[in-house]
Amino acid sequence: MSNRLINWFKFASPQSFYPLAGKMIPWFWALTAVFGIAGLWLSFFVAPTDAVQGEGYRIIFIHVPASWMSMFIYLVMAAWAGLGLALNTRLSGMMAQALAPTGALMAFLSLWTGALWGKPMWGAWWVWDARLTSELILFFLYIGFIALQAAIDDPRRADKAGAILALVGVVNIPIIYFSVKWWNTLHQGASVSLTKSPSMAQTMLWGMLLMALAFWMYSIAVALMRVRAIILERETHTEWVKELEAVKR
User: Fold this and answer.
1) Band of the pLDDT at 139, cuts 50, 70, 90?
2) Residue span of the structural domain in which 152 resides
3) What is the DSSP string of the chain?
4) In the prediction, which pLDDT does 2 show?
5) Which of residues 3 and 178 earns the better pLDDT score?
6) In a domain, 140, yes or no
7) 50, β-bridge pairs
8) Per the domain annotation, does 243 fall within a domain?
9) Within-domain flag for 249
10) How far is CA 148 from the centre of its chain?
11) Is the pLDDT of residue 159 over 80?
12) What is the tally of structural domains in the chain?
């Protein structure tokens, strides 16, 4: 058991993780395609028309997975950042940096698809609803994290400053999730819950879950591609990167 743990710990080194990430990327892109095609087919061609919202409800198959991923990626990013802050591991900061742009993209998609959904439902593109406002704050937290790291030249100092911001911002995640329960909001409650049966048709549910898996696989694939680029940038002075660059030439 201890030998297995030691084998896994070796991947905490950027030098060891770089080739592993390269091997995993094609698999996650393949899963993105499989789940995405199946999810889009179920969501837009099989799932029935909603009795109240008509065809316009189908935007939830993009909006809900993007919203889920925007929160989940932030938690993972903060966990990596906190790990780097506590243990001073190089790869942790790199992973947090790699995840931030994808998290910002998911928050952006959540906000815009929410606006497109809200216009016919509420008669307005935007309202200062508790969930919408807290999701907007999440988007700004991502942008702030990215900007803060870019503003500091020393990568290790940038990682530490970013980690503090990321950890402070974690408090916003439960606010987003529970906002519809804590306050009287226009935003509808959760359609999918771990403690209750789903309030939607099975084909709608499966379409949403498949799209969520596609977004998840996409996020992992892009983060792995980005972290490989970050590793090469930060480790450019090391012998193994110099040897790698020489082989590529």
Assistant:
1) very high
2) 40-47+56-238
3) -HHHHHHHHGGGSHHHHHHHHHHHHHHHHHHHHHHHHHHHHIIIIISPPBTTTBGGGGGHHHHHHHHHHHHHHHHHHHHHHHHHHHH--HHHHHHHHHHHHHHHHHHHHHHHHHHHHHHHHHSSS----HHHHHHHHHHHHHHHHHHHHHH-SSHHHHHHHHHHHHHHHTTHHHHHHHHHHHS--SS---SS-SSS--SS-HHHHHHHHHHHHHHHHHHHHHHHHHHHHHHHHHTTTSHHHHHHHHHH-
4) 47
5) 178
6) yes
7) 54
8) no
9) no
10) 19
11) yes
12) 1
CB 233 within 8 A of CB 90: no
What the block records as the tokens of 117 is: 């959904």
Q: Select the more confidently predicted residue: 26 or 58.
A: 26
Q: What is the mean pLDDT of residues 38-47?
A: 89
Q: Residue 13 falls within a domain, yes or no?
A: no
Cβ atoms 111, 145 nearer than 8 A: no
